[in-house]
C-alpha cells in the first residue's frame, strides 16, 4: 500500500488531476459572477473590434483604443472571442487564473524540496478568495507567473555575481565607448569653431 501511495504521489498526472478537481468548483456553476470579469471581456472585445476595423462608437463618441493596454489575459480571450459564449469565456478566464497560480505555487514548492510537498496544495482553497470575486484575473495570472519564475530561479544552480555583472556589462561596453568618443569629437569641434569665432 505504501508503494502504491509513493507511485501515486510521484506520478506525473497527480498535479493535473488535483487542479482539475479544484477547478470543478467554478465550472460546475452555471453563472460564475465576479466584479471586474465582464469588464475584461468588454475590454478585449473593444480591442478586437478596433483591430479589425470596427471601432466602438455611440452618440458621436468613439472609444480611444490607444489608451487601452493589452493585458496578458487578453490573448486567450482574443483567440476565443466570438467562438465561445461570454458566460463560459468568463469562467475560462477564471480557470486560467487559478490554474496559473496553482502551477506557480507548485513550481516554487518543488524548487525548495525535490520531494512533492503538500504545502503548495494550500493554495488550492485560497485561490478562491476575495481577489477572485473582485475579478482581477490579470493580477492573479501575473502572480502565478511570478511564483513560477521564482521557483525557476531558486531551482537554478548558483550564479556568480561577477559572471552576471559581466554578462550585463558586455553589451554596454561598445555603446559606452561610442558615446565617449562622440562626446570628445563634438567637444573638439566645438573648441575649434570657438577659436575661429564661428560660435559665440
Largest sheet: 2 strands, antiparallel
Secondary-structure class: mainly alpha
**For the largest beta sheet, what order do the strands appear in spatially?**
1-2
Helix percentage: 55-70%
Total count of strands: 2
Number of helices: 9
Mean pLDDT, all residues: 75
Could you say which overall geometry the principal axes of the C-alpha atoms support? flat
Q: What's the oligomerization state? A: single chain
Question: What fraction of the residues are assigned to beta strands by DSSP?
Answer: under 5%
- Low-confidence stretches at least 5 residues in length (pLDDT < 50)? none
Number of domains: 2
Computed over alpha carbons, the radius of gyration is 27 Å
Distance between the termini: 93 Å
Order of helices and strands: HHHEEHHHHHH
Describe the overall structure:
With 200 residues, the protein is an all-alpha fold. It folds into 2 domains: 2-155, no CATH class; 169-200. The protein is 68% helix and 2% strand. Strand 1 (57-58) and strand 2 form a beta hairpin. Helix 2 runs antiparallel to helix 5. It is flat, with a radius of gyration of 27 Å. The chain starts with a helix and ends with a helix.
Strand-helix topology:
Blueprint: H1 2-9, H2 14-27, H3 37-51, E1 57-58, E2 61-62, H4 74-80, H5 86-112, H6 123-126, H7 130-134, H8 137-155, H9 161-196
Antiparallel strand pairs: 1-2
Amino acid at each position: 500500500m505504501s508503494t502504491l501511495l509513493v507511485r501515486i504521489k510521484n506520478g506525473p498526472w497527480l498535479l493535473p488531476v488535483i487542479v482539475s478537481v479544484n477547478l470543478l468548483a467554478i465550472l460546475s456553476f452555471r453563472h460564475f459572477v465576479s466584479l471586474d470579469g465582464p469588464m475584461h471581456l468588454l475590454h478585449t472585445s473593444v480591442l478586437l473590434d478596433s483591430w479589425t476595423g470596427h471601432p466602438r462608437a455611440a452618440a458621436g463618441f468613439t472609444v480611444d483604443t490607444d489608451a487601452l493596454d493589452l493585458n496578458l489575459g487578453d490573448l486567450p480571450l482574443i483567440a476565443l472571442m466570438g467562438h465561445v459564449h461570454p458566460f463560459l469565456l468568463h469562467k475560462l478566464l477564471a480557470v486560467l487564473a487559478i490554474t496559473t497560480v496553482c502551477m506557480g505555487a507548485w513550481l516554487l514548492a518543488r524548487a525548495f524540496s525535490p520531494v512533492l510537498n503538500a504545502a503548495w496544495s494550500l493554495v488550492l482553497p485560497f485561490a478562491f478568495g476575495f481577489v477572485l470575486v473582485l475579478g482581477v484575473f490579470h493580477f492573479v495570472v501575473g502572480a502565478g507567473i511570478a511564483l513560477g519564475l521564482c521557483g525557476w530561479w531558486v531551482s537554478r544552480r548558483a550564479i556568480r555575481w561577477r559572471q552576471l555583472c559581466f554578462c550585463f556589462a558586455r553589451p554596454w561596453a561598445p555603446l559606452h565607448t561610442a558615446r565617449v568618443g562622440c562626446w570628445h569629437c563634438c567637444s573638439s569641434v566645438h573648441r575649434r569653431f570657438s577659436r575661429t569665432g564661428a560660435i559665440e
